[in-house]
RNA sequence: GGCGCGGUAGCUCAAUUGGUUAGAGCCCCGGACUGUCGAUCCGGAGGUUGCGGGUUCGAGUCCCGUCCGCGUCGCCA
């Protein structure tokens, strides 16, 4: 090692020893006769003094000219700082290193921004110069946190006898799910590999192989549009177990949540984690990953709406749709008409709602609203009672289809909670959502889609519904929800060929297609497949949530932009014509 | 693909109703300085206002298009 210590290491007890430090010039204070340099590495900051008597004029001049973010090596003596000149902000603030040897290992051009500057530059610049951005303590902290979480997970599963197995990145395209990233084959003209959306099929085959307990920290790829919490390539802690039911998997992950919360955040999590069914989640919160850090539960007032003469309410109820709302406590004075208009535009634009009805609970307990004249006092009173409205509350309602009321009210709920500051930033609220539907209906084609994937087992009690009413058939599926974000999801798999073929039928996957796309799995399942199930945890999201951040790019070293570009490497980029020819590829013109 | 926000000096931002030579702080360059830690002081450089078009006597400002970044809906088994 060039150095004897790191920049975060030296203390008063080291005074008198000669040390060598290496690091980056965080800042420089040049007094002419002496130069003070804050030397930074991953571990901290140490003040270096280049001045007499240790340093001669040439060394002082050289130190005075060194540019910020240059990499230097200092040999010198650890010394007490002068009386009253200590820096309480630094762990190393009691000492300084008096340079006897000063060496520039590498210079730094004037950087577009520095890691220590208080005004964070725009994200595009940070991404282009990610190597500078990653020098920032916040980024370093996120990467260290990520490393700790992954290590805690690996340790936990190793303790539970899991085997870490790597599965291929170059696989084959499967029919359902997200859009694939494709890789052309050179030796098989006009054929393509697909990058894995998850190692789903492989891990099931590992169960057939008798591995019993498998994990992998697996990179996954999905060519879909991005979000603040979504990247085109992301990392899952993928897991599969044999001879288990839902409770076994959930119980195992409960233990992981408690362990990581304790080890990483020092937080106690009560086990077992609460579980609610999908049906309950949609009814109470309008979302399958409800944010349980605050209340504002959805209330159904369709029964009252049906009794009114108000056309919007009555018509909705008569059409078999729903009038549902949320009580917004103490918000009446916090939202002006104009702000409520904005919320109305929000539910219209983002969720296709037809409008937003709202009432203010007045001091005398009556409901005031632009539409209250359309409603009888007794009905207003009923609405207030159902919503448990108290003076100062705002009551907001959507009259629409089940799906639209869910989406709109869930969106409102999250937005209002955030705006009203109802969310404790320190909270780590973990829960399970279970009993997802097996299928949802494709509105365009009217056909059934697998809500999770086509190998998901139905609840044993719902087996008959597979034939009678697929829409009511529930799956042995479970999602882990942390702070209103889907942090993991898994299922128990079908291991019985008869059930599998019924499900394929429902999904419109004929025998030939099934054979073509995942015949290898179906084949494997014929050779002694144990009952099995598993889960995949979104590592990027875990880290984001544990870090209290709201953006996944902040916990990924080299993330991509909303258009899936890497601003640093400028990927994706063009390729040579020769490369295309070798792959038997030709690009088509982009339509204007 | 839809909706919304943004793009002005290397960086963070300002610029009145469309009006003179587009400003400030930081950074950078030169100089002074032995106790700073956001060093200080003196001086200086730095602009295709993302790009293209239009309206106007005159556009950073208004209009149209486009590119890029962000948020969100669709999408994400």
TrEMBL record:
Q: Which segments carry the region annotation Aspartate? A: 200-203
Q: What's the chief localization of this chain?
A: cytoplasm
Domain of life of the organism in this record? Bacteria
Positions with a binding annotation for L-aspartate = 176, 222, 452, 493
Query: Catalytic activity annotated for this protein?
Result: tRNA(Asx) + L-aspartate + ATP = L-aspartyl-tRNA(Asx) + AMP + diphosphate
The record, for InterPro entries, names:
Aa-tRNA-synt_II (IPR004364), aa-tRNA-synth_II (IPR006195), aa-tRNA-synth_II/BPL/LPL (IPR045864), Asp-tRNA-ligase_1 (IPR004524), Asp-tRNA-ligase_1_N (IPR047089), Asp/Asn-tRNA-synth_IIb (IPR002312), AspRS_core (IPR047090), GAD-like_sf (IPR004115)
Positions bound to ATP: 222-224, 231, 486, 538-541
Which GO terms of the cellular component aspect does the record hold?
Answer: cytoplasm
Where does this protein have coiled-coil stretches?
none
Q: Provide the GO MF annotations for this entry.
A: aspartate-tRNA ligase activity; aspartate-tRNA(Asn) ligase activity; ATP binding; nucleic acid binding
Task: Report the PROSITE patterns cross-referenced here.
Answer: AA_TRNA_LIGASE_II (PS50862)
Q: Which residues form the Aminoacyl-transfer RNA synthetases class-II family profile domain?
A: 145-559
Which parts of the sequence are marked as the site Important for tRNA non-discrimination?
31, 84
Return any one Pfam family short name. Answer: GAD
For the biological process aspect of GO, one term held by this record is: aspartyl-tRNA aminoacylation
Which keywords are on file for this protein? Aminoacyl-tRNA synthetase, ATP-binding, Cytoplasm, Ligase, Nucleotide-binding, Protein biosynthesis
Location(s) in or outside the cell: Cytoplasm
Look up the EC number in the record and give it.
Answer: 6.1.1.23
Concerning NCBIfam families, the annotation shows: aspS_bact, PRK00476.1
Q: Which family does it belong to?
A: Belongs to the class-II aminoacyl-tRNA synthetase family. Type 1 subfamily.
Q: How is the subunit organization of this protein annotated in UniProt?
A: Homodimer.
Q: What does this protein do?
A: Aspartyl-tRNA synthetase with relaxed tRNA specificity since it is able to aspartylate not only its cognate tRNA(Asp) but also tRNA(Asn). Reaction proceeds in two steps: L-aspartate is first activated by ATP to form Asp-AMP and then transferred to the acceptor end of tRNA(Asp/Asn).
Q: What is this protein called?
A: Aspartate--tRNA(Asp/Asn) ligase
What organism does the UniProt record list as the source?
A: Rubripirellula obstinata
